[in-house]
Amino acid sequence: MGTKKYKPNTPGFRQRQINRYDEVTSLRSEKALVKPINSKAGRNNQGKVTLRWRGGGNRRKYRIIDFKRLKFDVPATIMNIEYDPNRSANIALIYYKDGEKAYIVAPLKSKVGDVIVSSSKAEIKAGNTLPINLIPIGSLIHNIELKAKGGAKLVRSAGCYATIMGRQENYVTIKLPSGEVRLIHNNCLATIGQIGNTDNRNTVKGKAGASRWIGKRPKVRGSVMNACDHPHGGGEGRAPVGHASPRTPWGKPALGYKTRNKKKHSKKYIIRKRT
């Protein structure tokens, strides 16, 4: 796909590098598959900020993506590859043979006119969705379910893929992009291939304003705050954090402190941690 660089006419353009969007074939979205997003800027129903550093940004609408792919044995044709402002991957508009339309995450090298299908008898081809136990060992997959018919939860970002490592009695062993190796039940669905827009990782915003366009506000270090605002704050001049380890604004350990529940039910499915 490639990226585009600018002439260094301004300091913001000097480092800026963006996607070329060569794969995108249409700039118009399907109206029936789009709904508005009401931005809350990180605030809850009481108006309190529960997620900091969010706000502003360009207006966007949500594209309804079919992560379940439960329309079995009905072929679908890719009609458009489109840009989605809500995710790093591109999306594909597909027309099923019975006339229904849907959006899916666009696989790598998918193009207009390709026919895909969700079926237990489907060919091992990029974009086809099968039960994970029917996919050969060593295959690259994405859009992986954690629970049968629960919709894809894993491997949905641009350029990502998981690898099938082996099989057990009722489970398939997969290696995720993070390096974690875990078990997925045989009845869960997965899609063949790698996700497209692989050059997304090479993009460089180049200036602070580009972060504001996507709704990210500035993040301030705790060490430059006042003592009443952060445990790291206060003191004359530059000062150490003043604790045995770094702290969050609410006084809890940070930077390396494990927050995952040790009794979480899914722990038994993790063979090797990502760390």
Task: Report the top-level CATH class.
Answer: Mainly Beta
Dominant shape? globular
Classified in CATH, the superfamily is: Nucleic acid-binding proteins
Count of individual domains: 1
- Our count of helices gives 2
Content of β-strand: 15-25%
Let me know the largest β-sheet: 7 strands, antiparallel
Mean pLDDT: 94
Sheet with most strands: strand arrangement? 9-16-10-13-14-15-17
Care to describe what's here?
The protein is mainly β and 275 residues long. The protein has one domain (3-201): Nucleic acid-binding proteins (OB fold (Dihydrolipoamide Acetyltransferase, E2P), Beta Barrel), CATH 2.40.50. 4% of the residues lie in helices and 24% in strands. The chain has helices at residues 11-15, 208-213; strands at residues 3-5, 17-19, 34-36, 61-63, 76-82, 91-96, 101-105, 115-116, 129-131, 140-142, 144-145, 152-154, 162-167, 171-175, 181-185, 189-192, 270-272. The protein is globular, with a radius of gyration of 22 Å. The two termini are 31 Å apart. 22% of the residues are buried. The mean pLDDT is 94.
